[in-house]
Amino acid sequence: MDILKNLLLILAVILSFNVMIFVHELGHFLAARWRGLKIEKFQVWFGKPIWSKTINGVQYGLGWIPAGGFVALPQLAPMETLEGKSDNDEVLPPISPLDKIIVAVAGPLFSLGLALVLGIAVWALGKPQDLIHATQIGYIKKNGPAEKAGLLLGDTILAINDKPVIGFAGNLNCITESIVLSDGDTIKFTVKREGESEPRTIVSGFETQSTAWYQRRALRQVGISYTNLAVVEGTLPHSPAAKAGLQPGDRITAIDGTRIWSTAQVGQIMEANDYKEVRVTVLRGENTIEIALKPEAPLTPAHQRPMLGIGWNGDGIFDSHIVHPNPIRQCQDSVKMMVATIKALVSRKSSVGIDQLSSPIGIAKAKYDLLSTDENGWRRLLVFLVLINVNLAIFNMLPFPVLDGGHTTLAIMEWVARRPVKARVLEYVQSACALVLISLFLYITSKDIGGFFGPKEKIEKVTFAP
Questions:
Q1: Does residue 298 lie within any of the structural domains?
Q2: 362-390 pLDDT, tens per residue?
Q3: How many CB atoms lie within 10 A of CB 158?
Q4: Rounded to whole angstroms, what are the CA distances from 14 to 18, 83, 209, 379?
Q5: Per-residue pLDDT tens for 275-323?
Q6: Do 217 and 262 reside in the same domain of the chain?
Q7: 431: three-class secondary structure by DSSP
Q8: Domain end position, chosen among 226, 249, 283
Q9: Does residue 463 belong to any structural domain of this protein?
Q10: Do 145 and 220 share a domain, yes or no?
């Protein structure tokens, strides 16, 4: 059953890719038909076709390189680098700049149209909110940037770099995303501290984890996490927590008199105390009790440090209730996400680089992971497809030769100058730009592949001695 499930997920990912590419290229195809252009090929994916069929003079095909697609329109601009050399030596009449603009813009418009259709589906069917609402700090990494800057447990973050935040993670207006997309050498936090009437400003540095040369650079972090109730969901057999009598529903409120703000803080306190015995304050129903707890090293895995053997109840941390955002709002949010990403990419003071982008392999993995989450995975995939189609439309309209925006720019220049760009010059420029795009594609793909390698944490069942 697992093999069948994985195969179905992979097929769903491939199908979603092909539909997205097909709709974009269909826009070019239909616009070219409407404007009376010569159409040689309609192909999904690049490279030599692994399947092709000629109908009414048009070769329809599927390439072997799983990235993009094209409609070969020799009157628009020769694209032999990506589309292959034309077999037709027919001399074709020139077309007007307006025709070129209409055909070039049609693809991105169809991608936006598909995004709106998918957005309507999300609006009708709903999507998980997928937001961590907490803005109060419940964990601070020892000797991390946040601790060095003076942030404290219990501080409520109101804004980052003067931009208000609405949660810890889940969209552009949250803490994690604001830290990742920040630029400059420092990050400014506006926080509300318990017992203080006025907010205070704290300026923090940041850190990035080291990665291997074949992997992506890590993103910015300051070493904080959100508050959550330390409520016991269960205990492992023969563990210190089980022996001490902790029960499901118990809430740990303090350890040796230190207030507990999150489950992450519990392990931090144990480590700082060198895993010695502690007095734990537990709220059980309406009663408060004291329990002595001493972490123990489990039998397996052998390398595991001492632990209590508690499984935490995560209810209420991650808001996944179904919401119904309107399609226009979804597209607007997608545009904001891409604009924020582009701004971070071009900023010299940002930690976001080209290597943080995703190739079709990375996008396919993201789709697979979304489908694999839970029963709402298919809803998350629909939301992701809205984002990807909006991104595809915007990316293709960038004024870069070989992209739709490049064709549009050249057509506007031809309109203004009243003469086309010289064919030889255009050939050189497009070939050079195609080489740059292909190199960029291969570089980003190498980072996607690199993400599959490197040390992986082996998950072993934890057992304690009876």
A1: yes
A2: 999 999 999 998 899 999 999 999 999 99
A3: 16
A4: 6, 22, 33, 17
A5: 999 999 999 999 999 999 999 999 988 888 999 999 999 888 999 999 9
A6: no
A7: helix
A8: 226
A9: no
A10: yes
Question: What CA–CA distance (Å, rounded) separates 417 from 29?
Answer: 27
Do residues 239 and 296 make contact, with C-beta atoms less than 8 angstroms apart? yes
Q: Which CATH number characterizes residue 145's domain? A: 2.30.42.10
Count of domains forming the chain: 2
Round to whole Å and give the CA distance between 180 and 161: 12
389-444 confidence digits (pLDDT tens): 999 999 999 888 888 998 899 899 889 988 877 777 777 887 888 888 889 988 99
Does one domain contain both 147 and 220?
A: yes
Length of the chain: 466
Full residue range of the structural domain in which residue 249 is found: 232-312
CA–CA dist 416, 408 (Å, integer): 12
Q: Give me the pLDDT at residue 437, please.
A: 85
CA distance 370 to 13: 10
C-alpha 152 chain-centroid distance? 29
Q: What is the pTM of this model?
A: 0.88
Amino acid at residue number 38: K
Q: Which of 181, 207, 226 is the last residue of a domain?
A: 226
218 contact partners, CB below 8 Å, separation of at least 6: 208, 209, 210, 211
Asked if the structure places residue 269 within a domain, the reply is: yes
